[in-house]
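Hi P.,

Sorry for the delay on this. The queue was packed all week, but I finally got your sequence through. Input first:
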Amino acid sequence: MHEARTNPILRELPVPVFGISATTGQSRGNTALVYADAEGGVCTGEPPRLRRRLAGRVRMYEVDTALQSVTVIFTLPSADEALDFSARMHLQWRVYKPEALIQAGLRDAQSVFWPFFQRRMRPISRRFRLEQNAELEVELNRSLEDVPFMLDHGIEVASCFVGTSVSDDDAKAFLLDRARTRWGAEQQEAEHQLAMLREEYRARESELQRAAALVTEEHDLLLKKQRMSFYRSAMEDRSLGVLVLQLLEHPADISAVVKLLQGRKTSYLEAARDTLRDMIRNDELSLADLDPVRQRAVDHLHEALESLACDARTQKLMQEFGVEPDDGGSSLRSVS
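Then the structure:
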């Protein structure tokens, strides 16, 4: 700690019982004469009367009452253990009650104002970390705004200002290390957030892909249903030319159309058979009536045998359309 002169006593002389002219005088504008006896009595201005001088020793003190400036350098504790703030205080003080100063036997005004400022500032500084140096300085000076401070033993502090800093090398290294730690934690948090966003994006992308695939599948199914409905209508209207053109545009539908035709033919034959059976059972047909039917069945059998003979040509034609026989050979399925 460094300070200017803080002893306000300029002169101290014993007052003789007789011949006191050397120890008398008048107080000037910036000094005051104070007389004190052995019993602790004090007075200002004129020396004590002869009776008091005879009773014991009397001393005269010339006290400086002018405004004094002083700078104090000190440390303040911080919220970080074992690390302190550096502080510099500029203040102005004076003696406003010289007799109280002499009666207390005070030789150093700093022993009065320094504990006062310590009690004020240390609890405040303990709430701040080293990197909050600027905030601490503002808060300390806010707490010192209610000047002047009328202190014990006739000392007055007229004005004061405190500045704080972090100048110690260890404190600077500590701050740098903590800043790096904080930056590292912030970077890890940012990377974690980025990873979460990426995962969320992937999940969203996968969900959109599944939705798109489902829409495509539903669209293809709808188109297929529409074509099959068209094929049924074409067969019912016997619009075979339109049917062939549609199949040429959509060769993948040939297998389904062939199955549809076979199914319709089978249904027709089964219905005809059931009708003939019912008519014979009910004696609605004679044997003579069945001759044309029998002849037609023989004709169909011949056609079937002939179709076996040209099976090779049929297979080649189906390959040109991209169609091959089904597992049982009775229906067709698309190669594509």
